[in-house]
UniProtKB/TrEMBL annotation:
Residues annotated as domain DRBM: 1-51, 93-154
PANTHER family named among the record's database cross-references: NF-KAPPA-B-REPRESSING FACTOR, NF-KAPPA-B-REPRESSING FACTOR-RELATED
GO cellular component, one term: nucleoplasm
Native species: Alauda arvensis (Eurasian skylark)
Tree of life domain: Eukaryota
One Pfam family cited in the UniProt record for this chain: dsrm
Gene3D superfamilies to which the protein is assigned, alphabetical: 3.30.160.20
The name this protein goes by in its record: NF-kappa-B-repressing factor
Gene name of this polypeptide: NKRF
Length: 207
């Protein structure tokens, strides 16, 4: 665990030795006897204490929450997920979910719950609604849960792709093409005489 272990000896009045075990400068246990026996007894007691501590930690339900985005609850109205638009600016699903939350002014929460051993469960909550979950090591479980959440959301929600480098998409056009088409169309279009905006502008002196 990259920690320091230290044994400190003290000669007692009865000529026996006391050995104390320190882990990261914290005294864990002590043992008595000859110098050799006291060290062995102290180490054995320290090991028992550590094993008991570890079993107590494993039996606890450890939960951690990571929240991203701004909540709509301050305005008194909770946003409806049916209006959600997925904003995909990266191939990383965690970034996609975080960007989506910001884009829709919603909150996305990653709720981590410790399982047995080194395994963790990660739940993805969007506006307090459960979307998906995954179980695995803590280092990768968030990514796996986010990936599953994006897959589920894409089945029902529209997606805005903001990365042309991801590959060729038939329906995608560049900004320059949009500007070019807009300029061409602007010259072709003419506001009709019965248009309200046209009438108001004419009254203001425009032709």
């Amino acid at each position: 665990n990259k920690m320091s272990v230290e044994y400190k000896y003290e000669l007692m009045p009865n000529r026996s030795w006391r050995c104390q075990v320190y882990l990261q400068d914290h005294c864990l246990a002590e043992g008595f006897g000859t110098k050799k026996i006291s060290k062995h007894a102290a180490a054995e007691e320290a090991l028992k204490i550590l094993q008991k501590m570890q079993s107590n930690i494993a039996s606890l339900k450890v939960t951690q929450v990571q929240k991203v985005g701004c909540s709509s609850r301050s305005s008194g109205r909770k946003k409806d997920l049916k209006d959600l638009v997925i904003y995909e600016n990266s191939s990383n699903p965690v970034c996609t979910l975080n960007d989506t939350a910001q884009f829709n002014k919603m909150t996305v929460e990653y709720v981590f719950e410790r399982m047995t051993g080194m395994r963790w469960k990660c739940k993805v909550m969007l506006e307090d609604e459960f979307i998906a979950e995954a179980v695995g090591v803590k280092k990768s479980v968030k990514h796996e849960a986010a990936e599953e959440a994006v897959k589920i959301l894409k089945k029902t929600q529209p997606t805005v792709v903001n990365n042309l480098k991801k590959g060729t998409v038939e329906d995608v056009i560049s900004r320059n093409e949009i500007r070019g088409r807009s300029a061409e169309e602007a010259f072709k279009q003419k506001i009709k005489e019965d248009n309200i905006g046209n009438q108001i502008l004419r009254k203001m002196g425009w032709t």
